[in-house]
Amino acid sequence: MDPTGGAAERQHVATAVESALANIDIVSLIATFLEAKDLCQVKATCKSLGSASDDSHEASLNGLSMAEEAAKRIHEDASDEEKAMLPRYDGENWIELYHHLLMLRTRLTFDQLVGSGVEYHGGDKRAVQGRKPNGPPRSSQALCGNHIMRAGKHWATFTSSSSFEDFQTVGVIRPLPGWEKRGLEWFSPVYHNKFHQDLQRERTNRWEGDYANWEGRDDFDRDCTTLGMLLDLGNGTLSVYQSGRRLGTLNDGLAGEYCWIAGFLGGGDFSIQRGYNVNIV
Fold first, then answer.
1. Which pLDDT belongs to residue 57?
2. Tell me, what's the pLDDT at 120?
């Protein structure tokens, strides 16, 4: 058996792979099967797709790494509606933007549970429930932390197995990366005395706008089990819908980045889904 034959074959395969990776169309096709974090890993470990600062011609295209150029092309092929929801920030990495595009195309999930009084229902990240404590109930929150909304219109439907109660809240909040790892026993964004400074430390230049309390809450039927919410960042409003009817504006003057949130003080449960069916009763 000639050992040089095997080496030659391996070299031939390696050359063919390297040649394929020099084709941005092939790289873009491969990228559509990868999560953003996997694309970052490929960029870091594969010289042919690596830094645009590399000396090799194969490593860059239009001043971008091959991996970033692939992510850019995927974003350019997105629908007009998706692009309206995902304008690119100045200097933003294309792979980061690709991550947000993937999140926009997936089901909403509660990715962050902050406080000891909330847990997943049946292991499903689309459904959460309040955990009844042994002592006094303490507020806890479930955030759709991976699904950041920065522009355009975003619909969500919140459903409870029982009627909405005073100890259950839904709405939007600024992104709070890593807060699920803080080990907080309880958390409520409205308790400014305790959490105000920590929340202000999370402020970025993507936090804009202000808000006012909503009108129409007197029309709210507390026996309902489904609420629709529309975050319209073009108008800067968060509106509430019930049984296909708009109840009013919950907040206005909104701008910048937000994610969906559900809060608990004791029991209760919520599930979330993207969109809203106006025929829901």
1. 41
2. 96
What DSSP line would sit under 114-149, residue for residue? ESTTEEEETTEEEEEEEPPPSSS---EEEE-TT--B
136 and 251 housed in the same domain: yes
Name the residue among 245, 253, 251 with its Cα closest to residue 261: 251
Whole-number Å distance between alpha carbons of 196 and 187:
11
Which residues in the chain show pLDDT less than 50?
A: 9-22, 44-45, 47-48, 50, 52, 54-60, 212-218, 280-281
Q: Is residue 279 part of a domain?
A: no
Distance of alpha carbon 273 from alpha carbon 124, whole angstroms: 12
Residue among 220, 209, 221, 222 nearest 251 (CA): 209
- State phi, psi for 178 to the nearest 5 degrees: 85, -5
178 and 89 together in one domain: no
Q: Look at residue 264 and give its three-state secondary structure.
A: strand
In a domain? residue 281: no
Position 62: which residue type?
A: N
Query: Total structural domains in the chain?
Result: 2
Task: Determine whether 166 is exposed, middle or buried from the number of CB atoms within 10 Å of its CB (0-12, 13-18, 19+).
Answer: exposed
Q: Say whether both 56 and 121 belong to one domain.
A: no
pLDDT value of residue 40: 54
Range of the domain at 22: 3-104
Considering the domain architecture, whether residues 129 and 268 belong to the same structural domain is answered as yes
For residues 108-134, one letter each, b for 16 or more C-beta atoms within 10 angstroms of the residue's C-beta and e for the rest, the string is bbbebbbbebbeebeeebbbbbbbeee
